[in-house]
């Protein structure tokens, strides 16, 4: 299972590196969204508003939805599912591989957007660095949930519009916990209670995905 996960992750990352969708489309979109958020706050409130962590995670959500759709689009190319079925690949390994590839892409996006938040929203650099570990774990949980729900919607009509409807309830506790943890880091508050929610969600989504991903792909 681990070997299959590694091969699937490398395959997805190679495709992304060749297409450069993340570099030339998704990241510029995220940077523009952050810039617009900074303009909406205005120069007076930028850096003095408590909305910075929430705006960061809101932009991250938009980026995550784009990358989840992109990850599932790879599997919808002609012959891909038939090849996986013919090779008899372990669905759990496929799930873990796609989750790992998506998590790496989200981690890269998250670091870039965090730098943007420091520059555009004037978020404190020290607080951003303290929040970085919780951001990475939150994005990992979003990758696991996104891969799971992406497989659920990939076979139907209007998958691009159905995906946000299904994932937002799953992402809600992650976004809330991530925002609270980010705010606590900026204000030198306690972080551990928000870490518990994110870690439990990450383990739960990984467990459900390992058990059910094969069923969702066949549906």
Account of the 3D structure:
The chain has 219 residues and is mostly helical. It has one domain (2-218). 86% of the residues lie in helices and 0% in strands. The chain has helices spanning 2-19, 21-45, 52-75, 80-87, 91-120, 125-153, 159-186, 192-218. The radius of gyration is 18 Å and the shape is globular. It starts with a helix and ends with a helix. The mean pLDDT is 82.
Q: Strand share of the residues?
A: under 5%
Q: How many beta-strand runs?
A: 0
Overall mean pLDDT: 82
Straight-line N-to-C gap: 22 Å
Which percent range fits the helix content?
Answer: over 70%
Based on Cα principal axes, name the global outline: globular
How many separate domains make up the residues?
Answer: 1
Q: What's the gyration radius in Å?
A: 18 Å
Quick gist of this model?
The chain is built from eight helices and no strands. Helix 3 runs antiparallel to helix 5, helix 5 (91-120) runs antiparallel to helix 6 (125-153) and helix 7 (159-186) runs antiparallel to helix 8 (192-218).
Could you give the topology of this structure?
Blueprint: H1 2-19, H2 21-45, H3 52-75, H4 80-87, H5 91-120, H6 125-153, H7 159-186, H8 192-218
Helix pairs in contact: 1-5, 2-3, 2-5, 3-5, 3-6, 3-7, 5-6, 5-8, 6-7, 6-8, 7-8
Short descriptors:
219 residues; mainly alpha; globular
